[in-house]
Amino acid sequence: MTLDCLERICDATSVDELWELYTTTMADYGFDRIMYGFTRFKTATSLGDILDSLVLTNHDPEYVEDYVSKGLYYHAPMLRWSLENTGSCSWSWLAERGAEDGFTDSERKVVALNRENQIKAGYTISFRSSTIRTKGAVALAAKIGMTQDDVDKIWEKHGQEISVISNVAHLKIISLPYSSSRKSLTKRQREVLEWVGDGKTMQDIALLMGLTVATVEKHLRLAREALDVETTAQAVLKASFQNQIFVVEA
User: What whole-number distance in Å separates Cα of residue 242 and Cα of residue 166?
Assistant: First the structure.
């Protein structure tokens, strides 16, 4: 099962295809509600704008609205753990921390929200970062009715498989084109950004693409709007981070 799953993950050509495969595989292990997050804009004091992060989840939309859109995720104890650690962690750590140190008011709100949504048992995997600005992690919530003891027994038997599959899925996800705003660049917008990234002037790009300078500038303006940035340099950087330029189309 593991090798077959890894092969299919490696062959995936889109984030949507990979996410469907990953969530189905994790459900077979007992984890049917998943929250994955990745950012390239982390600083010492911030995870960056959530709109610049890639968030994938199959949780209930109402829960996602409260947890992500309203910013509660930033105070989640397990997210804090993932920022300070690499590897996997049983959610039994929550009970241990609650008993020893207690939670802040903001952390208690997250814990209460999770309990209300029957998110009580699971594991968190924090992926190794390649730069100081990147961070990725996934929270695997067990099926309703399962206890943390049940989950820990699953992890004792299959934890290495789950960790390997999750890490390969993570590395594959961040290699595929994606748009955090779900507003992808058009072919023309990608092309003009690629030429800018190559150091070409507006006149050079117009000649190479058989367009007028005004049309090239229009494509750049629309690319900046799609990527929600102010400058063309920022657009090239963000599009590169999201693997939207200099990529082989499927």
Answer: 20
pTM of the predicted protein model: 0.86
What is the per-residue pLDDT across 200-211, written as a single tens digit (0 to 9) for each? Answer: 999 999 999 999
Look up residue 66 and give its DSSP letter.
I
Same domain, yes or no: 164 and 237 = no
Round to whole Å and give the CA distance between 23 and 1: 15
- Give the sign of the dihedral formed by CA 138, CA 123, CA 107, CA 57: positive
The token pair at 187 is 């072919």
What's the domain range around 91?
2-173
Taking the C-alpha atoms of residue 58 and residue 135, their distance in angstroms, rounded to an integer, is 20
Q: Tokens for 225, please give them.
A: 């709007």
Do 123 and 210 have their domain in common? no
Counting every residue written for the chain, the total comes to 250
Q: In what order do the strands lie in the sheet with 31-39?
A: 54-57, 31-39, 135-142, 122-126, 87-90
Number of domains in the chain: 2
> Which residues, in sequence order, are CB contacts of 123 under 8 Å at separation 6+?
31, 88, 89, 90, 91, 139, 140, 151, 155, 159, 162
Q: 133 is written with which tokens?
A: 């600005």
DSSP class of residue 91 equals: T
Q: What is the pLDDT of residues 31-86, one digit of tens each?
A: 999 999 999 989 888 888 888 889 999 999 999 999 998 899 999 999 999 999 99
Contact 79, 111 (CB under 8 A): no
Where helices occur in the chain by DSSP H, the ranges are 2-11, 15-29, 61-64, 77-84, 92-100, 105-116, 148-173, 187-197, 202-209, 213-227, 232-241
Give yes or no: residues 197 and 144 share one domain: no
